[in-house]
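Any chance you could type out a protein's amino acid sequence plus the matching C-alpha cells because I've never seen that pairing?

——
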Amino acid sequence: MLIDTHSHIYLPDFNDDRDEIIERALNNNVKHILLPNIDSQSIEAMLNLTESYNNICLPMIGLHPTHVKENYKNELK
C-alpha cells in the first residue's frame, strides 16, 4: 500500500485532469492522498475534493510554510 503524503491536486492547475490523476493513483496501489491546504483561501477547494473522493483524499488543515507571512496569526485563526 502506498500513501501520497503531500499533494495539492485541489488547485485549479489540476481541474482538467484531476479525475485521471486520482484514477492513476488508485491503479498504482496509492490508497490515500493527503492534502495539505496552503492558506485560508485554499480550504474550500481542498474540502470539496475530499468530499468527492472521501475514500482516498484526506484533508490537512494548517498554514503551508511557503505562505507564512506577517498575518500568520490571523491565517491560523
Summary: Residues 18-27 form the longest helix (10 residues). The helical segments are 18-27, 43-52, 72-76.
